[in-house]
C-alpha cells in the first residue's frame, strides 16, 4: 500500500503539497483523489506545490499534465508552484513542457493567479 | 646460516654503504657542493629569479635532503622524505606561478648531480656508488617535481577558468520582479549551463516573474547556442516565470533565420530597453488586475 498525498481545502481551492518522493502509484492515487475532491467540494482551483520534490521524472511530469486536463474538465484550474531549477532543467532535457499546466514561482503567486481567474469568472457571470 | 643469507645481506650492505658515503660527501663538503649546485641552477634560470631567493630555497632543500638521507636512506617515497617533498611541491608551485617551464623546474634538482660531478675527481668505487645513489634519488624526486609542477599548473588553469565563468555571468535585478542576464562573450555548453542555473535560481530567490536575457555581447549564435537559450526559456516558463530575449543584432537575426531556428512564441526584443518596457507593462497588467480585485 503506497502513501497517499494529503489534499487540503482552502476556500474554493485545493492545495496539494508534495513532501515525499513520488512513485508512480502515489501519483495515480493522487490523480484519483484530486478528481474526487474537486467534484466533492466544487473546487475552482488546484495548487500543486512541488517545492520539496527533488526529482520529477517523465511519468510524474505527464501525470501533472493529465491532472491539469482532468481538473479543467471539472472546471478547476491547476497551478504547479515552486518547481526547483534542477527539476525544470531535467524536464526540459527530457523534452517535457508540461503543456496545459500553469506554473508559478511560489505558492503566493500561484494563489494570485487563481484569485485573478476567480474574479474574472465572477465578473463574467 | 650466515652463508645462506649472505648475498641478501651483502646487497643491503652495498646499498647502505653507498648512501652512507653519499651522506658523508654531502655533509663534509656541504658548502662546496651546495655552491656548485646553486651555480648550475642559477645559470639555467638565467637571472629570472633572484640569487638570494635561490640561495635560500636550495639551502633549505639541501638541508632537508641531508636530513632525509640520514634518517630514511634512499627511499624517496618514504615518510622520512615528507619534508623534502613538501619543499619540492612548494618550489614547483612557485615556479609554475612565475611561468617557468617544467624542465627549468626539474633542473633545480638534477643540477645536484652536476654539482656532485665536480667533486668526484678521483673516481673511486665509493664515489661511483655515491653518484649512482644520488642519481637514483634525484630521478625519483625529479619525477615528483614534474608531477607536482603539472598538478599546480592544472590547478591554476582550472581556478582561472572558474573565475572567468563567475565573472562573466552576473544576474542583475533590473526592477521589482524583473531580473536580467547580460551575456558577454562566446557561449558554450558549460557556460550556458551556468547561466541557466544561476538565472533559474535567482528567479526562485527573488520571486521575479520576468527575466531578460540580453545577448548584445554575444558575437555569434549557432544552433547549439540557440538550443541552449530556448531550453533556458522553457525551463523558466516551467517554473512560472517569463523570459524575454533581447539584443539580437541584425546579422545574428539573419543567421538565426538562415539556420531555420524557431523561436516560437518566445518574446524577443531588439534592445534591453524594449524588453524592460515589455516586462514592466506585463507586470503592470498583473498589478492592475490585482488592484481591480481589491476594489
Automatic annotation (TrEMBL), chain A:
InterPro entries recorded: Bact_StressResp_Reg, STAS_dom, STAS_dom_sf
Name of the protein this chain belongs to: STAS domain-containing protein
Organism of origin: Actinospica acidithermotolerans
Domain STAS: 14-114
Superkingdom to which the source organism belongs: Bacteria
Coiled-coil spans in chain: none
Amino acid at each position: 500500500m503506497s502513501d497517499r498525498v494529503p489534499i487540503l481545502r482552502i476556500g474554493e481551492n485545493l492545495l496539494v503539497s508534495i513532501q515525499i518522493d513520488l512513485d508512480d502509484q502515489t501519483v495515480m492515487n493522487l490523480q484519483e483523489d484530486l478528481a474526487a475532491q474537486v467534484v466533492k467540494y466544487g473546487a475552482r482551483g488546484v495548487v500543486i506545490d512541488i517545492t520539496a520534490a527533488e526529482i520529477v521524472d517523465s511519468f510524474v511530469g505527464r501525470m501533472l499534465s493529465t491532472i491539469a486536463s482532468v481538473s479543467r474538465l471539472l472546471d478547476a484550474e491547476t497551478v504547479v508552484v515552486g518547481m526547483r531549477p534542477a527539476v525544470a532543467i531535467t524536464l526540459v532535457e527530457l523534452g517535457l513542457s508540461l503543456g496545459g499546466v500553469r506554473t508559478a514561482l511560489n505558492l503566493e503567486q500561484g494563489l494570485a493567479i487563481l484569485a485573478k481567474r476567480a474574479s474574472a469568472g465572477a465578473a463574467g457571470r | 646460516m650466515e652463508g645462506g643469507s649472505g648475498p641478501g645481506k651483502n646487497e643491503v650492505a652495498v646499498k647502505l654503504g653507498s648512501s652512507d658515503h653519499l651522506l658523508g660527501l654531502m655533509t663534509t663538503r656541504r658548502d662546496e657542493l651546495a655552491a656548485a649546485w646553486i651555480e648550475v641552477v642559477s645559470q639555467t634560470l638565467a637571472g629570472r629569479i633572484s640569487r638570494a631567493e635561490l640561495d635560500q630555497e636550495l639551502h633549505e632543500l639541501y638541508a632537508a635532503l641531508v636530513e632525509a638521507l640520514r634518517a630514511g636512506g634512499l627511499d624517496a617515497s618514504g615518510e622520512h622524505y615528507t619534508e623534502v617533498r613538501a619543499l619540492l611541491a612548494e618550489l614547483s608551485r612557485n615556479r609554475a606561478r612565475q611561468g617557468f617551464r617544467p624542465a627549468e623546474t626539474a633542473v633545480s634538482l638534477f643540477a645536484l648531480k652536476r654539482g656532485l660531478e665536480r667533486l668526484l675527481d678521483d673516481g673511486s668505487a665509493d664515489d661511483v656508488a655515491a653518484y649512482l645513489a644520488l642519481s637514483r634519488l634525484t630521478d625519483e624526486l625529479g619525477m615528483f617535481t614534474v608531477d607536482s609542477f603539472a598538478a599546480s599548473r592544472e590547478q591554476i588553469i582550472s581556478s582561472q577558468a572558474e573565475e572567468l565563468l563567475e565573472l562573466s555571468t552576473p544576474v542583475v535585478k533590473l526592477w521589482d520582479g524583473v531580473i536580467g542576464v547580460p551575456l558577454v562573450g562566446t557561449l558554450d555548453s558549460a557556460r550556458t549551463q551556468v547561466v541557466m542555473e544561476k538565472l533559474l535560481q535567482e528567479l526562485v530567490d527573488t520571486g521575479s516573474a520576468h527575466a531578460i536575457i540580453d545577448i548584445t555581447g554575444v558575437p555569434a549564435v549557432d544552433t547549439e547556442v540557440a538550443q541552449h537559450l530556448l531550453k533556458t526559456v522553457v525551463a523558466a516558463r516551467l517554473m512560472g516565470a517569463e523570459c524575454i530575449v533581447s539584443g539580437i543584432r541584425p546579422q545574428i537575426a539573419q543567421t538565426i533565420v538562415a539556420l531555420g531556428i524557431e523561436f516560437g512564441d518566445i518574446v524577443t526584443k531588439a534592445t534591453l530597453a524594449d524588453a524592460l518596457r515589455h516586462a514592466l507593462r506585463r507586470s503592470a497588467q498583473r498589478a492592475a488586475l490585482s488592484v481591480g480585485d481589491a476594489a
